[in-house]
C-alpha cells in the first residue's frame, strides 16, 4: 500500500488563460483543510486548464 494519496485538480482560468486568484485560493484552502498538500502546479498554456498536483498521507 502506498504511503501517499494523490489528487490532480483543475484550477479555473480566465479568458486570457490566467488563474483566477480568489477562486484558486478558495479551492486550495478547502483542500488544505482536508489534509491535502500542494506539491506542484502545471500551466499548459492559453486555452488549457492549470493543473494543481496534491498529496496527503494515508
List keywords for this structure.
alpha+beta, 1 helix, 3-stranded antiparallel β-sheet, 58 residues
Commentary on this structure:
The chain has 58 residues and is an alpha+beta fold. It has one domain (4-57). It is 22% helix and 40% strand. It is built from 1 helix and 3 strands; from the N terminus they run βαββ. Strands 1-3-2 form a 3-stranded antiparallel β-sheet, with helices on one face. Strand 2 and strand 3 form a beta hairpin. The termini are close together. The model has no long low-confidence stretch (mean pLDDT 90).
What's this, in brief?
With 58 residues, the chain is of the alpha+beta class.
User: Major sheet: size, sense and barrel closure?
Assistant: 3 strands, antiparallel
The total domain count is 1
Helix segment count?
Answer: 1
Q: What is the strand tally?
A: 3
What is the topology?
Elements: E1 4-11, H1 21-33, E2 37-43, E3 50-57
Antiparallel strand pairs: 1-3, 2-3
